[in-house]
Amino acid sequence: KHSELNAFLIAAPSYGVEAQNALLKILEEPPNNVCFIMFAKSPNHVLATIKSRLIKEDKRQKIPLKPLDLDLSKLDLKDIYAFLKNLDKENFDSRENQRERIESLLESIHRHQIYLSEQELQAFDLAIKANSSYYKLSYNLLPLLLSLLSKKKTP
User: Fold this and answer.
1) 21 pLDDT band (50/70/90 cuts)?
2) Where are the domains of the chain?
3) CB contact at 8 A, 37 and 7
4) DSSP notation for 16-41
5) Helices 77-89, 137-153: inter-axial angle, 10-degree rounding
6) What is the pLDDT of residues 37-84, one digit of tens each?
């Protein structure tokens, strides 16, 4: 028998329910001297039965996002146009910086207590994915901002 601890890293972009149920069986009766380290994008992507058997640590460091130069409470087409025009002039040195701008918009929406439907939240996911495919940031933000504008005009 081995006396040293063996660690297994479990990392995936997402975990299916079937895979998590299989993992749950192992976690309920783990082999001796075995440690599992599981990485997930969010605790919400892991079954509650698995979370209850794990020690959770969030190692991310929260870095404050740069606020947008856009007042969502007074949003109109002119503001959107000026904002996107200025955005196109900015020199973004990485996809990460562009992603942070999309996240800043989402944070600003939250601060203004604007409710987003599931479909609207999915539009943010798509914008972040499009950002990683090297789409221009203003192209990614335009549909999101127009959606907010139409939401504002709809009672």
Assistant:
1) very high
2) 6-51, 72-153
3) yes
4) -HHHHHHHHHHHHSPPTTEEEEEE-S
5) 170
6) 888 877 778 899 988 888 888 777 778 888 888 999 999 999 999 999
3-state DSSP percent of the chain in helix, strand and coil, to 5: 55, 10, 40
The tens digit of pLDDT for each residue in 114-143 reads 999 989 999 998 888 888 777 788 888 999
Alpha-carbon span 85 to 91, nearest angstrom: 12
Q: Which residues pair with 34 in a beta bridge?
A: 6
Picking from 21, 18, 54, 16, the residue whose alpha carbon sits closest to that of residue 36 is 54
The one-letter amino acid code at 101 reads R
**How high is the mean pLDDT of the chain?**
86
Q: Where are the beta strands (DSSP E) in 3-145?
A: 6-11, 34-39
DSSP characters over 113-129: T----HHHHHHHHHHHH
Q: What is the DSSP letter of 66?
A: P
